[in-house]
């Protein structure tokens, strides 16, 4: 590909205003001495001008209004969903902190600091562990069922 | 009142500078307003959503129409795009261009739609061969009415019809550059392609468009 052919390949892009500075300089230098490329560039510019002046089709106003209403409803749902998620995460963290702190606190108040350091793996500990696990498993199952139901409702809507 | 050459030149320069400054000021005002609307939308402001929809309604619809060519499908995708905006606005990175992000959402939906409804259209040749229709038969009449305005409209119409005959990847790059006036970097972001690919697509699209125009309307002024 000689210099002339390279420039020819740049002409359409020049009409689209997407040449980088190096290519632009190369083109300008060439155009100073080449009338045929200048004429060719003018043709490309006419085509580009025609493309820029194509009429803009507009969506029907009923479609725009429907899109607006639906998007606003979806945004409201998303905000609500985000808020619910934040509250649930907050409650979960709070519940875990409460659960994890309750036994050491009970030990602290009933048996002193040394009593707290000695958990004594006895019947009370087992009951406490089973109780906590059951409650958390039930909570987790409820959350999964709730989310599945919500997803199904959203799909149907 | 006569003005000397230098006075005319001076007033033209001052006028030109003032005009350029006011255009730049308008551009920045527009950018600030857009950023503010997007930030408000991220905070869940319904009014900001409405403002952005009004701002982009024509451009977005035009782009979708260029992609899928059927007004009913473009309208459906237009609605889906705004639903997607409402769902995904929290994932939008404010350092990116909102416009590029919005058109990327629209493009992904349009490509999914085409893949589902008309998979052949993603690598379509010119024209609709199944119906036996050729590029030439889809073009409006070559007879030109005398009035310049009508001529201009007809030229635009022809160009629009020829544009529709290009493959979707070429149509979209032309639409983004010439109708949406996006920079090449923004187009690359929307298409998720390197700059060199975008330039190649643009060049090929223009060359193909010109070949069809020259074949169909030899010697015509396309302006």
Write the layout of secondary structure elements.
The complex is a heterodimer of chains A (157) and B (223).
Chain A lengths: L2 H13 L5 H11 L3 H18 L8 H57 L5 H34 L1
Chain B lengths: L4 H38 L3 H23 L2 H18 L9 H20 L17 H4 L9 H18 L2 H12 L4 H8 L3 H22 L7
Helix pairs in contact in B: 1-2, 2-3, 2-4, 2-7, 3-4, 4-8, 7-9, 8-9
Question: What's the tally of helices of chain B?
Answer: 9
CATH topology of the largest domain in chain B: Rna Polymerase Sigma Factor, Chain: A
Measured distance between first and last alpha carbons of chain B: 37 Å
Structural class of chain B: mainly alpha
- Radius of gyration of chain B (Å): 21 Å
Strand content of chain A: under 5%
| Count of beta strands of chain A | 0
Largest sheet features of chain B: none
Number of domains of chain A: 2
Low-confidence stretches of chain A: none
The pLDDT mean of chain A sits at 83
Report strand % of chain B. under 5%
CATH homology-level superfamily of the largest domain in chain B: RNA polymerase sigma factor, region 2, helix turn helix motif
Apparent shape of chain A:
elongated
Kindly state the mean pLDDT of chain B as a whole number? Answer: 79
SSE order of chain A, as H and E?
HHHHH
Structural class of chain A: mainly alpha
Describe this entry's structure for a reader.
The complex is a heterodimer of chains A (157) and B (223). Chain A is 85% helix and 0% strand. Chain A is mainly α and 157 residues long. In chain A, helix 1 (3-15) packs across helix 2 and helix 1 (3-15) runs parallel beside helix 3 (35-52). The longest helix of chain A has 57 residues, at 61-117. The radius of gyration of chain B is 21 Å and the shape is globular. Chain B has 223 residues and is mainly α. Chain A binds chain B through residues 9, 12-13, 15-16, 18, 43-44, 46-60, 63-64, 66-68, 70-72, 74-76, 78-79, 82, and chain B through 41, 44, 46, 49-50, 53-54, 57-59, 61-62, 65, 71, 74-75, 78-79, 82-83, 85-87, 89-90, 153, 155-156, 159-160, 163, 174, 177-179, 181, 184, 199, 202-203, 206-207, 209-210, 213, 221-223.
């Amino acid at each position: 590909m000689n210099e002339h052919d390279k420039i020819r390949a740049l002409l359409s892009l020049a009409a689209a205003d997407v040449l980088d500075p190096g290519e632009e300089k190369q083109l300008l230098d060439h155009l100073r001495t080449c009338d045929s490329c200048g004429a060719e560039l003018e043709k490309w510019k006419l085509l580009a001008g025609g493309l820029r002046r194509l009429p803009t089709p507009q969506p029907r106003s009923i479609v725009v209004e429907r899109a607006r209403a639906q998007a606003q409803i979806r945004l409201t749902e998303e905000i609500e969903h985000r808020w619910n998620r934040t509250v649930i995460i907050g409650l979960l963290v709070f519940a875990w902190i409460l659960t994890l702190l309750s036994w050491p606190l009970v030990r602290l108040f009933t048996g002193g600091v040394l009593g707290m350091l000695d958990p004594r793996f006895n019947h009370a500990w087992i009951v406490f562990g089973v109780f906590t696990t059951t409650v958390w498993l039930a909570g987790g199952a409820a959350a999964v069922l709730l989310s599945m139901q919500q997803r199904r409702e959203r799909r149907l809507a | 009142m006569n003005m000397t050459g230098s006075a005319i030149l001076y007033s033209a320069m001052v006028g030109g500078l003032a005009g350029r400054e006011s255009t730049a000021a308008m551009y920045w005002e527009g950018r600030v307003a857009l950023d503010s609307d997007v930030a408000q939308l991220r905070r869940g402001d319904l009014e900001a959503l409405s403002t952005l929809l009004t701002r982009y309604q024509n451009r977005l619809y035009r782009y979708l129409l260029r992609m899928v060519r059927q007004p009913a499908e473009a309208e459906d995708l237009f609605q889906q795009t705004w639903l997607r905006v409402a769902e995904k606005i929290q994932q939008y990175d404010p350092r990116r261009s909102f416009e590029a992000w919005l058109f990327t959402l629209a493009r992904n939906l349009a490509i999914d739609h085409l893949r589902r409804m008309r998979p052949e259209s993603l690598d379509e040749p010119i024209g609709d061969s199944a119906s036996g229709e050729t590029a030439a038969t889809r073009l409006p009449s070559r007879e030109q009415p005398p009035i310049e305005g009508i001529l201009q409209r007809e030229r635009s119409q022809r160009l629009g019809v020829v544009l529709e005959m290009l493959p979707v990847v070429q149509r979209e790059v032309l639409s983004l550059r010439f109708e949406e006036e996006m920079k090449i970097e923004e187009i690359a972001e929307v298409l998720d392609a390197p700059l060199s690919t975008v330039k190649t697509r643009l060049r090929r699209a223009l060359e193909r468009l010109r070949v069809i125009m020259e074949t169909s309307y030899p010697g015509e002024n396309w302006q």
